[in-house]
């Protein structure tokens, strides 16, 4: 059995996979606390039994990787396999000039999406940051974009504006309208949401013209379900895209 870990900026998502012919387990999530790392890891994973491999997409930083490595060596006598983007793997070639600079979570999501359609595709990940990546019909990654996620966009606005911050402190009404807000908190929420939706819609439309072909669109990430109903194009919501990609990468040797 393999333990698959998607270590993001604020939350850790994980699942297990029994191996060839099996299926990914139900995804679980928890908020990482560095001061209680060993305790949290043990609570989540000590009862999993014998593990063959621990496969990780880590964008949480070197401290997380060091803490996880120490814990996994002590608990399972395993050193985690920290995935990084390669020039080519699992049928996909990386479009970055320096592949190692592409986030491991983005690389895993791209691979996971490619294995689902083997055709031109767009992957949108709405988490702490918004990332958009495009792959053409031959499996060549065309590159991507990074923008602030919903929470980051809201916090940036609040940190730079006195009156808006004071007015929004009254809290959300709990009845967010579909388009136009009638209080400051909802206006910030909707403004941030529609900024992200507009970016996604425009990029997908422009890429479709540039490539001259239709795209298979995938959306994932903690805020993916929030954005999904508002985007114009048809998207498949795949919350486990990174974890599935990690499993594929774990059993795929680097292609020459």
Low-confidence stretches: 166-177
User: Mean of residue pLDDT?
Assistant: 89
Fraction of residues in helix: 25-40%
CATH classification class of the domain at 119-150 and 182-239? Alpha Beta
DSSP helical segment count: 8
Shape: globular
The SSE order reads EEEHEHEEEHEEEHHHEHEH
Strand elements, count: 12
Structural class: alpha/beta
At the fourth level of CATH, the homologous superfamily of the domain at 119-150 and 182-239 is ATPase, nucleotide binding domain
CATH architecture grouping of the domain at 119-150 and 182-239: 2-Layer Sandwich
Largest pleated sheet = 5 strands, mixed
Biggest sheet, strands in spatial order?
3-2-1-4-5
CATH topology of the domain at 119-150 and 182-239: Nucleotidyltransferase, domain 5
Gap from first CA to last CA: 28 Å
Radius of gyration: 19 Å
Beta-strand proportion:
15-25%
List the helices and strands and how they pair.
Layout: E1 2-7, E2 11-17, E3 28-31, H1 37-45, E4 53-58, H2 62-76, E5 81-82, E6 88-89, E7 92-93, H3 104-117, E8 121-126, E9 129-135, E10 141-148, H4 150-160, H5 162-168, H6 184-211, E11 216-220, H7 224-227, E12 236-237, H8 241-250
Parallel strand pairs: 1-4, 4-5, 8-11, 11-12
Antiparallel strand pairs: 1-2, 2-3, 6-7, 8-9, 9-10
């Amino acid at each position: 059995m393999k333990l698959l870990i998607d270590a993001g900026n604020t939350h850790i998502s994980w699942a297990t996979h029994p191996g060839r012919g099996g299926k990914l387990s139900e995804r679980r999530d928890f908020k990482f606390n560095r001061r209680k790392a060993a305790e949290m890891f043990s609570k989540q994973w000590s009862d999993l039994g014998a593990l063959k491999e621990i496969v990780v997409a880590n964008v949480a930083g070197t401290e997380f990787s060091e803490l996880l490595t120490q814990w996994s060596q002590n608990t399972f006598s395993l050193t985690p396999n920290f995935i990084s983007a390669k020039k080519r793997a699992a049928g996909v070639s990386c479009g970055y000039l320096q592949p190692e600079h592409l986030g491991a979570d983005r690389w895993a999501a791209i691979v996971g999406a490619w294995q689902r359609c083997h055709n031109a595709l767009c992957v949108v990940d709405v988490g702490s940051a918004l990332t958009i990546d495009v792959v053409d019909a031959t499996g060549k990654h065309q590159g991507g974009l990074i923008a602030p996620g919903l929470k980051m966009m809201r916090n940036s606005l609040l940190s730079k504006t006195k009156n808006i911050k004071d007015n929004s402190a009254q809290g959300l009404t709990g009845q967010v309208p579909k388009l136009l807000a009638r209080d400051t908190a909802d206006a910030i929420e909707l403004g941030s949401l529609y900024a992200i939706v507009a970016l996604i819609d425009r990029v997908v439309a422009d890429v479709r013209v540039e490539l001259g072909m239709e795209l298979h669109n995938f959306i994932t990430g903690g805020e993916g379900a929030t954005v999904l109903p508002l985007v114009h194009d048809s998207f498949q919501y795949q919350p486990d895209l990174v974890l599935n990609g990690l499993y594929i990468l774990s059993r795929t040797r680097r292609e020459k």
